[in-house]
Each structure stands twice: as structure tokens, then as C-alpha cells.
Specification:
heterodimer; A: 419 residues; alpha/beta; five-stranded parallel β-sheet; 9 helices; 21 strands; 22% helix; 27% strand; B: 741 residues; 20 helices
Chain lengths: 419, 741
């Protein structure tokens, strides 16, 4: 028997959350499915938002509260859509819910993680530290319920967590479940991934220890990150005193991403403030093609530019190498305004990796067409299916929120048309 | 309602190992005036068996419930008990997980929290909705450009009646003045026909939309669901009922007459708006002599990104100039377009269009600071620039110069006028009068009858843009039921404006629907409670009317305040402001919190500190600290409040007269980039407490005993220390001298 709801939202990141709560607060039933064990998506990994430099968990907390207070929203984590058929008014959707191995009895006490003997790479922190196979990503995660990573768990032969849990919350035999939904409309909000910087050979991505991505930088600066918010370089844990940001790492490059990823200029400037706030003598240098701070974001650029320890160099970085002894990073670029070549050494380099729509790698099952770059071709979508946020083009959080709220009205229209 | 109490204590999650449950039962029973046997204890209250126990009691009539277990932030579904007043006492995070087990101090914390929970339920009541009669669900859209048209259509398609008010004689705004649009689809090569005309047709034909052209809003009275909107068209006024507004009044091009340094004034120096008109003629000719322009220079950031003019980027001018360069090239294959820019800003896939244009050898792009535009004779101009990519100064001849002028939101002029009026008002009535007489009054957009002013206030430091203060909540308006959309909030492209306008339409719909159910809108969109003042005791001091951030309280002819409840966002600022303490919500009142404070046990040999914590950020931060098993100072007792704006000064008296040694107000950051979702809650609280400090000093009670601390949700790691520091300072001051009384 299929579960009847007005709207299905695929993806529980900020766009999906917004689409879901906004639709529900307009009086319609929503079901949201999220692939990972927790809601919030990419923004949960960010330290601060530009340009206000406020913590993302603040807005997330409010949205989680909105979910808690609205009986019209249900959600499934670890859930993947397997099949979509039908048309506006009656889409039949098959969803596979992968086992969490932790049931609703979980109280979030951490006993399972303490007992778990298996250390695993912490993907939430881009493998910069370790966590346990029984884990929760951070202390404001939602739902506040542990999960067991079955790729690493030793299963019944170990079962230390089962023993440690006083609440019968762990079930190592949990099996995937399939649920059927019948909905009037579908909002696609499966978000984005960072461009794989290991494809940027000349920039040392994934090869040089102290060359990290902008998303890794967010984790390094986050109080709930691998270094509790201290910006320390990966090779030796040394506080970072000089940093270079390499803009358009993948973006605006026909061999990689032909489009501009929109957020990276603002993100790098924001990250420069992270460093400058932490170490008064530190310096940051931003290598760019064009600085793109549209609208009132321009003000943020001016503010950062006012800091004499932040410098901007117009020029594409040609090559990044490592000093084998010190592990410092050597950046070679051309300052095209001065028309000369530069070679400079930094403690750490951040690659402003571009945005890739999640649909580049994993297509949403159903009759959906994509552009050459993997974005959803919105104009070709069937009636009653709406794509939002970074699935259409690279956007920041504000614009994702606008777009997702707009998708909510489209879903309501679908629901009304189907009555 | 007649209350039948049910008190439950959970022993799980180390609560049972941290406190003496028997003693906790006894003290709780005393507070609840019930037999100790009636207090129900369970090993794991959130387990199916535990929940069944509670739910069975509810079935048998228990309707006033206190649950001593985990934080209300978790297990919300499990402990959701419709029809019962339910108070969750945070014994897990605030006791078991953040205190040393089995100490006297820990025991007394648990007992205090349970007692406070009992008091809250004793004093509270179940909410009933306040639904006003004769509500309208009609949505008024102000502005008939791309944003307004989109909002109108989306709301109408969702089944709502829409009234669209457009100042001009025709719909379409700036979009209707375009020759072509920039490409929006792969391969981003072909210019598109303006899409707005189809939209205009749809709007004009839609049965749910009534369009007023050449019309302005003369007056807006009332509140969400009950707005009376007077629309004036060609001299005739008509008043309609409406439920909510979308303000999409759009923008004006920056006044090019201020750009004399860029040659404006010379007939062959035109704006990007004029360029569209010229392109529509079929040939790119120059104004002075009608000669075909073959060397067209585009000057980017003409006004924008300039502290002397517009200190922001206007977002679409780079793409517009690239598009217009294409006009030049398409009309004449021999013509050359030269674009002088600071940075080319073509975010997203517009970059691909830029790439395509770069590949055209007839389009020359150079980074440059344009230093001047001078007459070259024959109607031609020299464009002089420095800091070019070649590092040298250049001088290029052009037969037509296009200034990529930026945008000024329609909200800017009213805001500036009103800011001037406020400033003049500060100097007295005469100065105010003189200002009104001497300053030309710009066109207002909404003409609201709010005492806070006739327009949506623009965001501070946002140059007149009526944007949201919040990244996560783009439609968190400061005028309930009125949502801005499009270029009044941010410079944006037509595509972005359409997305934004659809979002604003949804918010307007939510507003009329919530008002119809008697519940609040964002950010307390579930809240059925409302401020209910005991008017008989009102002294008409007007503090509530002045402090309400949303203009929800007005005064009648006699000066007595009254609520326009549909404007209210339920923050409780009025409750905090009222010196007579007459404002109450069913589950939150001066008496409830005051009684909770007075319920805290105070002993002579221990310091006792009360923390009033904002439930949006401060409370979750404290919770998060506890989840990390950080120790919270055992001397403190935490009481959540809706917003620090709701803190009433009498609570200070309650605390200090009871013998409490110190008081912390823990709330959001204020000032620039404020975090308060009720605009000024923590700032107001700070202001009020500034006043109370004088009184404390007079009573020889050191004012340092009371402090407001701003905290972000992410600062949970620092919180325990911040609290410890405060407690240490109070300890230095010594015990509250009133303790012995």
C-alpha cells in the first residue's frame, strides 16, 4: 500500500529542507528522502556563511524545529529513490531505505561509539581524522540518532555496541526496506559535490599534503571539525601563517567545468577571514581570474580587501609543487596585471574547487534529461517535477532558499491541480 | 481547564545514576501537591512501555504533564501529547550529562528543574487559536515587472485571488523594454526573444488576477488577512480587502547624469537602457547624427562598485553588455565592440555565453579602470583607461559609448526620505516641519499606516534594498504578511527574480492560511498562542507599542494600546516591555517565569545564578555543550525564553529579592549582522537592563550581578567557561545581601 502524500522532496540539504518545510507550512503533506544518515546536507559542514559570518547550524536548528513542530512532514534518511513512474497528480515512487542498524530506541548517549573498536576515516571531515564505525557526525546533528557504517562494521562477530547499548537500539541484522509512495509532485534537491581536485594535476590536488580544498578548509575552521576549529596544516599540524587561495580550481575551464561555480570567490574571501581572525600575523593571498562578488556581496570584498594582510593577485595559477623538506607549498602563477611570473611559498594552499551537480555522477531514476555538465535541464522536466538549487546552476544558500521556496509553490499548484 | 497532573521521571541515560530518584520524587511530589506514589518513574521513559504508560494516563484524563527526561530538542515525536499541556524538564542534558553524579549540588539542580516544570504547567494553559472574522485571502502584488508578474501568476495558479498594481500604463517593467535576452540554455549562443510578453498575456487573461494599471497604492491599513488597500487609478480611488502583500516595485537605472566623468551628456554616450531602444530600431546608430556605430565601447560598472555612486555590484550589467556587444556584431559584421571592465561577472552558466563572446574576434575585452571619456571630434569619443592588462595607459577611439549603468531599488528613495525625516524629528518638531516643507517627497510604495513607518524598512547598510537579514530565511520580513521580491531586495537577473518572486508568493499564501487558522507565521509558524493583555491594568505608557518590532500594537484615539494580532510574531517583546506585567501568553507569561525563578531553592551557603536563555540559539548551545559532556556550572539554573526581548525587568526583582546572586541573559548577537529573529530582542533586553542597573546600584546591589551575554549556536564549547567566569565574578562580589531576608 503506497503512502499518499502531496509532495516528495528528494534531498535533505538546505534546498530540500526549505522546500519541505515551506510546503508543509502552507498546509500540504510532504515526505522528504535523504541519502545520508542526517539532514542538512553540505551546509552542515560549513563553519560560517558569507557574508554575515554566522553559523549554519543556527538556521538548521530553526528548520529542524519547524520539522519537529509540523506533523505534515515525514522524512527518511539513508533513503534512495529507485524508481519514479506516473505523472503529475500521481507519481509512484519506490524508495529503498538502507539500514541504519540503529533503531528509534536510540537515545544518543554515545555508548555504542565508545564501545566500537573500529576506527574509520571520518568522511564528514573529508578523512582528515577518524571516527568510529558507530558514529554521529556532530553534536547538533539531526536526527540525533547514531548510525553504523556497514562498510566497516565487523557485524555479529564483534557486536560490542550491542552489548554496550542499554536501550536495545542496535540491530545488526537490520535489512534494507522498500517503501512505496504516491505523490502529486516531486522536488529534486539532491545538491552538489566538490569538483574532484585530483583531476587538477598541475595543482597538486589530492597529492600534496598541504594542498586542501575549500570544503576541507571549512572543516578545519569549524569548532566541530577535526582540529576543533584550529587552522592547522595537515602535514605536521603547524598553525598556518601563510595561505594561498587558488580560484577557479576546475571552474571556468573547458577541460574541467566550463561554468563559473558562483560561490568560490566569496568562499575564499570568507576563509581568509577565518585565518586572519585566528592568527594576527598571518597572511592570505588570493589568486583569481575575475573576482565575482555580485550584488551587495561587493561590500564583503571591500571589507576583506581593507585588510592589509590579505592580497589579491589577478592571474591563473600554473603549477603547484611541494618543498619536500618543509612540506611548504610553492605556487607558480602569472600576475597578469604586472605581466610577470611569480613563485611564492605558502604554509598551505586552498583550492577553490568548483561545484558539480550531484546529478553529474548519480542520475535520478525517472524521465529526466540533463545538460552536458550534468545539471537538470529544467525546461524539459515533466509536469509536476521541479529541480531546485544547485541542480539547475551553481548557487549560494540565499538563492537556493529562494528557489526552493519557489518550488514549494509549484508543488502546491500540482497538488491543487490533482485534487 | 481543569488540570489532572501527571508527573514522570525517567531514570535512563544516566539520570538514575546521577541523582537520588527517591528524593527527587519526594520534592517533586511536594511541588506538585501530589502523593509521592503518584509520581511515575520509568527506566526508559521513551521506550514503548514508558510511552504507553503516559499515553494510557492521557486516555484516562491526565492533561497536565511534566516529563523529567531528556532535552525537548530530542524525542519530540515520542513525547508529543496532543490535548495535554506538556513540559519537558531537561534532566538529562542539564543534570546527568553536565553535572557530577550524586552530589548535593546535582540533586538540588534536578529538584529545582522539576519544580520549575511543575510551576510552568500549574500556571500555563492550552492554547486556543485567535481567529479574526472576515478574513481575506486576496494577495496584492505591487509592481508589474518580471517579479510582480511571476508572483501574481504563481499565486493565482495556486488558487488565490490576486490584485496586481502597476504604476505604469503597461505591464512588463524593464523586461518589456529589452530588444533581446541573454541565452538561458545550452549552447548559450543564441539571444532569446523577451519572455515577458507571454507572461503579460497570461496575467491579463487569468481569471484569478485583477490588474490595475497606471495605479498606485494610496493607503494600506489593517493587518494580514484584514488589509484595507486603497488603490488610486487615474484619479479614482478604490478600497479593496486583502490578506497579504508581495512588494515587487523593482528598480530604476542609476541616474546617468551623475556620470559626467564618463562622458554622459555627450549625445553619443548612452546608457545600456538606451542601447536596447536603439537595437530595437534594427540598426545600431548613434544619436548625434544617426550614423551607424562601428566602434562601440562599453564601460562596465558605470556607477556600480563605486563608493561615490553605488557601493555594490548590479549583478546583470556584465551579461547585458556582452549581449549588447552581440547586437553590435549581429547588426554589422564589420563593427567592433570593446568592453572595458573591472571584473567580468558572469556567474553560473552565463560564463559559457561569455566564453562564446570571447571567441568572437570582433569583441574586445579588457580589464581597465576608465579614467576619462573625451571628445575626439566628428562625434567620436576617446576612452582613456589605465591599469589595463598590458599594464599601460590606453586611449581608444569609439563612435558610440555605452555606459553599463547599475540599478537603484525603488525602495531607496522612500527610505532615504524617511531616514531624513527621522533625523529631523530628533531635532524637534520645527526641524521636522522644515524637512517636510523643504524636501521633495518621493513616491511611496505601500503607504502603510504603521507607526513604524509607511514602507518595509530596508535593511541597515543595504543602500535601500528591502532584503531579508537572514541567509537561511530569505522571506523573513519585518512587516508580517508583506514580502519583497526581485530587485527591491538585491540586484538580480530576470531568471533569479522569477525564482524569488515564486518564493515570495508562497510566503504570502502561508501568511493568509496561518492567519485563517489563528497561528503565527515564521519563525514560530506552529504557535497558536498569542499575547493576551489584561487591559484593565494598562496605563497607556506605550512601551509595548514602541518596542514591538513588527508594529503589531497600535493606540486608539485615547492612546490606549490595542493589538493587530495578525501582525504579531509571538516573540513576547511586548510582554518584556510592559512595566505593569499585563501581557501573557497561555504558556509563557511574566508570572510563569517569575514564579519559576522564585521556585528555585536558595540557601545561604551557596551561590545561585539564573540563566535566561533564548530558545533559538542559546538553549541549543547549552544543550550541545552538555551533549559533549562539558560540565556546566552547578550554581546555575537555566530557564528558556522565547526571545530575550521578552525578558521583563520584574524578573530581576523576582530573582534578587529571592536571594539569587546573579542573572545572565543569554541571547543572540546584536548590532550589525544581528542574529535575532525578532529583530532586536537581545539589544532591547540590554537596553532595559542598562536601566535596571541604576536601580540595582541604588539598592546597593552591585549591577555586575546581572549581565547580558551574546552567544552563537556554534559557541557551545566556550559557553561553560563564559558561565564559570561570570559565576566567579559574582562570587567575588559576594552573596546577595537580600539572601538573609
Amino acid at each position: 500500500m503506497a503512502d499518499n502524500k502531496n509532495v516528495l522532496v528528494i534531498g535533505g540539504g538546505f534546498s530540500g529542507l526549505t522546500a519541505a518545510v515551506e510546503t508543509a507550512e502552507a498546509g500540504f503533506d510532504v515526505v522528504m528522502v535523504e541519502k545520508t544518515p542526517f539532514l542538512g546536507g553540505r551546509v552542515t559542514q560549513l563553519n560560517k556563511y558569507f557574508p554575515k559570518l554566522c553559523p549554519p547550524n543556527c538556521g538548521l536548528e530553526i528548520n529542524f524545529k519547524r520539522i519537529k513542530n509540523n506533523a505534515g512532514i515525514t522524512f527518511h534518511t539513508l533513503a534512495e529513490v529507485e524508481k519514479i513512474s506516473g505523472q503529475e497528480g500521481s507519481y509512484n515512487v519506490t524508495v529503498k531505505v538502507n539500514p541504519r542498524f540503529v533503531n528509534d530506541n536510540c537515545v544518543g548517549c554515545n555508548a555504542c561509539a565508545e564501545a566500537c573498536p573500529v576506527e574509520i576515516p571520518n568522511e564528514f571531515n573529508f578523512n582528515m581524522d577518524k571516527t568510529k564505525a558507530a558514529y554521529i557526525t556532530h553534536n547538533q546533528a539531526f536526527p540525533f540518532k547514531y548510525v553504523i557504517d556497514c562498510r566497516y562494521c565487523k557485524g555479529a562477530s564483534c557486536a560490542k555496541c550491542v552489548e554496550a547499548c542499554k536501550y536495545d537500539a542496535i540491530d545488526l541484522n537490520m535489512k534494507p526496506e522498500t517503501i512505496s509512495l504516491n505523490v502529486s509532485s516531486i522536488v529534486l534537491a539532491t545538491g552538489w559535490d566538490s569538483y574532484d581536485v585530483s583531476k587538477l594535476d598541475n595543482l597538486g590536488g589530492g597529492k600534496i599534503a598541504n594542498v586542501i580544498t575549500n570544503m576541507m578548509m571549512e572543516r578545519l575552521a569549524s569548532p566541530n571539525g577535526p582540529t576543533s576549529g584550529k587552522i592547522l596544516r595537515p602535514s605536521d599540524g603547524k598553525p598556518v601563517q601563510s595561505i594561498a587561495f587558488v580560484q577557479c580550481a576546475g571552474s571556468r575551464d573547458e577541460n574541467h567545468l566550463p561554468y563559473c561555480s558562483y560561490i568560490c570567490c566569496m568562499a575564499s574571501m570568507k576563509q581568509a577571514t577565518y585565518l586572519r581572525e585566528q592568527y594576527p600575523d598571518s597572511t592570505a593571498r588570493i589568486f583569481y581570474i575575475d573576482l565575482r562578488t555580485p550584488g551587495r556581496y561587493e561590500q564583503f570584498y571591500w571589507k576583506v580587501k581593507d585588510d592589509p594582510k590579505v592580497s589579491f593577485t589577478k592571474g591563473k595559477v600554473a603549477k603547484i609543487t611541494e618543498d619536500p623538506e618543509t612540506k611548504d607549498v610553492i605556487v607558480e602563477a602569472e600576475d597578469i596585471q604586472l605581466g610577470k611570473k611569480i613563485k611564492a611559498k605558502f604554509d598551505m594552499v586552498v583550492l577553490a574547487a568548483g561545484m558539480v551537480p550531484s546529478t553529474k555522477a548519480s542520475k535520478i531514476p525517472g524521465d529526466i534529461t540533463y545538460t552536458a555538465d550534468g545539471f537538470v535541464a529544467s525546461s524539459s522536466l515533466k509536469k509536476g517535477i521541479y529541480a531546485v538549487g544547485t541542480l539547475k546552476s551553481p548557487v549560494d544558500v540565499s538563492r537556493s532558499v529562494q528557489d526552493a521556496t519557489g518550488a514549494a509553490i509549484k508543488s502546491i499548484q500540482s497538488a491543487r491541480r490533482s485534487k | 481547564m481543569e488540570k489532572k497532573f501527571g508527573v514522570y521521571i525517567c531514570k535512563g541515560c544516566s539520570i538514575g545514576e546521577s541523582v537520588n530518584i527517591d528524593n527527587l520524587i519526594k520534592s517533586t511530589a511536594r511541588a506538585a501537591k501530589m502523593q509521592p506514589e503518584a509520581v511515575r518513574v520509568h527506566d526508559v521513559l521513551c521506550s514503548p512501555a514508558g510511552l504507553e504508560m503516559i499515553k494510557n494516563d492521557v486516555k484516562e484524563g491526565t492533561n497536565a504533564i511534566v516529563i523529567g527526561a531528556c532535552s525537548p530538542r530530542v524525542k519530540f515525536e515520542e513525547f508529543d501529547l496532543p490535548g495535554a499541556i506538556t513540559e519537558r524538564v531537561n534532566l538529562r542534558e542539564f543534570v546527568a550529562w553536565s553535572q557530577d553524579p550524586n552530589t548535593d549540588a546535582t540533586q538540588s539542580i534536578a529538584e529545582d528543574y522539576m519544580k520549575m516544570g511543575i510551576i510552568k504547567v500549574q500556571k500555563g494553559d492550552l492554547p486556543e487559536p485567535n481567529i479574526l472574522p472576515d478574513l481575506s485571502k486576496t494577495i496584492v502584488v505591487v509592481g508589474g515587472g518580471v517579479s510582480g508578474l511571476t508572483s501574481a501568476l504563481e499565486a493565482a495558479e495556486a488558487g488565490y485571488e490576486v490584485v496586481l498594481v502597476e504604476k505604469q500604463a503597461e505591464l512588463g517593467g524593464w523586461a518589456a523594454k529589452l530588444y533581446k535576452q541573454t541565452p538561458r540554455e545550452y549552447p548559450y549562443e543564441k539571444l532569446e526573444e523577451p519572455a515577458v510578453f507571454a507572461k503579460i498575456k497570461e496575467v491579463e487573461a487569468h481569471p484569478n488576477i485583477k490588474v490595475y494599471k497606471s495605479a498606485v497604492i494610496e493607503k494600506t491599513e489593517g493587518q494580514p488577512g484584514l488589509f484595507d488597500v486603497t488603490i488610486r487609478t487615474n484619479g479614482t480611488g478604490e478600497t479593496i480587502k486583502a490578506g497579504a502583500f508581495i512588494m515587487a516595485a523593482g528598480w530604476q537605472p542609476y541616474d546617468a547624469s551623475k556620470l559626467g566623468h564618463l562622458g554622459y551628456g555627450n549625445p553619443n554616450v548612452i546608457t545600456n537602457v538606451q542601447m536596447e531602444e536603439i537595437a530595437k530600431t534594427g540598426k545600431i546608430t548613434r544619436p548625434s547624427d544617426g550614423k551607424e556605430a562601428k566602434r562601440v565601447a562599453f564601460i562596465q560598472c558605470a556607477g556600480s562598485r563605486d563608493p561615490e555612486h553605488l557601493p555594490y555590484c548590479s549583478s546583470f550589467c556584465c551579461a547585458t553588455s556582452l549581449k549588447q556587444a552581440k547586437y553590435v556584431r549581429e547588426k554589422n559584421g564589420d563593427a567592433v565592440a570593446m568592453i572595458f571592465y573591472k571584473d567580468i561577472r558572469t556567474p553560473g552558466q552565463t560564463e559559457i555565453f561569455y566564453k562564446n563572446m570571447q571567441n568572437d574576434p570582433g569583441v574586445l575585452l579588457t580589464k581597465a579602470d576608465v579614467t576619462g571619456i573625451s571628445d575626439a571630434g566628428n562625434g567620436n569619443m576617446f576612452v582613456e583607461a589605465e591599469n589595463t592588462l598590458l599594464g599601460e595607459k590606453i586611449k581608444v577611439e569609439a563612435d558610440l559609448v555605452v555606459l553599463a549603468t547599475g540599478i537603484v531599488p525603488a525602495t531607496r528613495a522612500p527610505q532615504e526620505y524617511l531616514d531624513g525625516l527621522t533625523e529631523a524629528g530628533k531635532k524637534g518638531d520645527d526641524a521636522r516641519k522644515a524637512y517636510i516643507e523643504s524636501t521633495p517627497k518621493p513616491e511611496f510604495i505601500l503607504n502603510l499606516d504603521y507607526r513604524q513607518g509607511p514602507e518595509i524598512p530596508s535593511l541597515e547598510g543595504a543602500y535601500g534594498f528591502a532584503d531579508s537579514n537572514f541567509i537561511c530565511f530569505q522571506y523573513e520580513t519585518r512587516r508580517t504578511g508583506i514580502y519583497s521580491a526581485g530587485c527591491v531586495r538585491q540586484p538580480m537577473t530576470m531568471a533569479d527574480a522569477s525564482d524569488d518572486a515564486a518564493g515570495a508568493a508562497l510566503k504570502a499564501i502561508q501568511c493568509v492560511e496561518h492567519v485563517a487558522q489563528g497561528i503565527a507565521v515564521h519563525p514560530r509558524a506552529w504557535d497558536m498562542t498569542f499575547p493576551d493583555p489584561l487591559m484593565i491594568k494598562c496605563t497607556s505608557c506605550k512601551r509595548c507599542t514602541e518596542e514591538c518590532p513588527f508594529g503589531a500594537i497600535d493606540e486608539d484615539e485615547k492612546g490606549t494600546p490595542f493589538y493587530r494580532i495578525n501582525r504579531c510574531r509571538r516573540c513576547g517583546t511586548c510582554m518584556g516591555a510592559c512595566p505593569e506585567r499585563i501581557v501573557s501568553f497561555k504558556d509563557f507569561s511574566v508570572d510563569i517565569v517569575g514564579s519559576m525563578i522564585r521556585g528555585i531553592e536558595v540557601s545561604e551557603d551557596e551561590f545561585r545564578i539564573v540563566v535566561l536563555a533564548c530558545e533559538n540559539d542559546a538553549y541549543p548551545a547549552l544543550d550541545s555543550a552538555a551533549i559533549k559532556r562539558n560540565k556546566i556550572n552547578p550554581n546555575v539554573r537555566i530557564i528558556p525564553v522565547r526571545c530575550l526581548g521578552s525578558t521583563n525587568l520584574v524578573w530581576v526583582t523576582d530573582a534578587f529579592s529571592k536571594g539569587i546572586d546573579g542573572l545572565i541573559l543569554l541571547g543572540c548577537k546584536y548590532g550589525e549582522n544581528y542574529q535575532c529573529h525578532f529583530v532586536k530582542g537581545s539589544e532591547l533586553a540590554n537596553y532595559r537592563f542598562g536601566k535596571v542597573k541604576e536601580t540595582l546600584d541604588k539598592l546597593q546591589l552591585e549591577s555586575d550581578r546581572c549581565q547580558l551575554i551574546q552567544v552563537a549556536i556554534s559557541e557551545y564549547d566556550k559557553l561553560p567557561e563564559i558561565i564559570n567566569d561570570f559565576v566567579a565574578r559574582v562570587e567575588e562580589i559576594g552573596p546577595n545581601p537580600f539572601k538573609e531576608f
